[in-house]
Amino acid sequence: MNLPKLKGDKKPAGNGGEQSAPPPRRPRVGLALGSGSARGWAHIGIIQALEELGVEIDVVAGTSIGALVGGAYVSGALAEFGDWVKTLTTRDVFSLMDFSFSGGVVKGEKLFGFFEEMHSNPNIEELTQRFVTVATDMKSGREVWISKGPVLDAARASCALPGLFSPFQHQRRWMLDGGLVNPVPVSAARAFGADVVIAVNLNAQLVGAHLSRQRPPDTGDGHGEEDRSVWQKMMGYFAAGDGEDPGFFDVVASSVNIMQDRITRSRMAGDPPEVTLIPLLEDFALMDFHRASEAIDEGRRLVERHEGDIRAWVGSPHADRV
């Protein structure tokens, strides 16, 4: 007797077996690169270590220094950029600072102009990865996501730390540092399509840290005494007169750390990332950009310590793309 075929019966495959299910879709991975001044060089080591693990990054969202490093990455210049920042000395950092007291101590034009001369500056629309930076509209105080136009303009608009870097005019609006509203841009990474977000929080555990440990330039080229004299004069202007009261950089750095820590806690509680990476760089001063090697190495170590969690969320690096 022929029994009727049940609705749930599977059709035989051509090889006599059952049809196999399609392979699972690879999750779209997003990086949320947070603000944190010189500590942001850790982003370089983190990205390089993720790539070495085979993690494919689809979306990059950056705030402040995270926007700059993220811009170098999506432009294909991260390796060259990383090699360059490792060579920076205090004298080099000082030479890239165009001191001004119009909106901030540093205008930033020399730094970003030098970067543009060294590296390409494509439009975001031309990139293979999705890229967005976070800035703050100075007039309205609103959070602004920049996802069109030249990569460096988008990064520069996000890098205007109050009291340090001057505001940047973008599309006729003055922009302040994105860390004022979204220090670790998890929400932006999700909005641009990320299923799994790896967030880098540079400001955790920094509240109360003393951050004015700037050192005089040490170039080893016979001009050390002159450099130290210039550095000491500059630091003398910003530091406390009696060595006990908080100096300029103490006030700026501590205020920013407190603000960003509180904002980050609040925002990440409402929209937590799948993986949070916190570099242990609490001894970094606000302007320690010459210590890139230390930060990059810590970024690499951080990925190694969290490799299990990262692989658990990202899955096999060889899963099929859709």
TrEMBL record:
Q: Where is this region: Disordered?
A: 1-30
Active-site annotation? S64, D177
Instruction: Give the Basic and acidic residues compositional bias ranges.
Output: 1-12
Source organism, top-level taxon: Bacteria
InterPro entries cross-referenced by the UniProt entry: Acyl_Trfase/lysoPLipase, NTE, PNPLA_dom
Give the UniProt keywords, A-Z. Hydrolase, Lipid degradation, Lipid metabolism
Q: Where is the PNPLA domain?
A: 31-190
The protein's name: PNPLA domain-containing protein
Give the source species.
Alloalcanivorax profundimaris
